C-alpha cells in the first residue's frame, strides 16, 4: 500500500524535533550528512528528506538554539526586582547556561562562524542576533518602566552592548578559562550595562581614522 504523504505541519514538527536532537550533539558542524545522521541515530536518507541539505540542517539548528536561548532569557527576567537586579539576573542566568556542557552555546557560536562564510545562512545568522538583541532590549525597557529607571541610552543600544560584551566573555571561557577573571568580567559587564543605561558611564571618543 502506498504511504500517505507527510503533511507540512507534521513534517515541520519532525524538523524541529530533529534540529533539537542535532543541536544536542557536538559534531554537526564538522561532519557530512552521514556523520550528522549518525549523530541523530537515523538513516542518511532521512537527513536528506527531512532537511534537504546540510545548510538547511544548520539553519534549523541555529533557529532551534536561538529560540531556546531567547526563552531562557525571558524566563530569567524577575518580575519584581529593581533595574540593576534585573540586569544581574539576566547575566547570571546566561552565565550558568554557558557553564553547562549541554547548553548548545558552543555549537551556536560554531554555527554563527560558519554562517559568516556561508551566504545561504546569512538570514539565519542575522535572525539569531536580531532575536537576541530584540528580546534583551524589550526586557531592558520593561524593567525600566516597571522600576521607574530612566534610560538615557536607547534600550537597543544597551542591549547591543550587553550582548556583545557577553559574547566576548563567553569566548574567553571556551578558549582561555579563568574562573576568577571571568567573575570580575561578568560583574564589570553588569555594572557597565547599568551605568550605560542610566547615563553614568563616561564615553570616550575613540578616533577611527
UniProtKB/TrEMBL annotation:
Low complexity compositional bias, start-end: 19-28
Organism whose genome encodes this protein: Streptomyces echinatus
Domain Tetracyclin repressor-like C-terminal group: 84-194
Domain of life from the UniProt record: Bacteria
Protein name: AcrR family transcriptional regulator
Domain HTH tetR-type: from-to ranges: 30-61
Residue segments, region Disordered: 1-28
InterPro entries: Homeodomain-like_sf, HTH-type_TetR-like_transc_reg, HTH_TetR, Tet_transcr_reg_TetR-rel_C_sf, TetR_C_31
Keywords for the protein's UniProt record, in alphabetical order: DNA-binding, Transcription, Transcription regulation
Pfam entry (one): TetR_N
A single GO molecular function term of this UniProt record: DNA-binding transcription factor activity
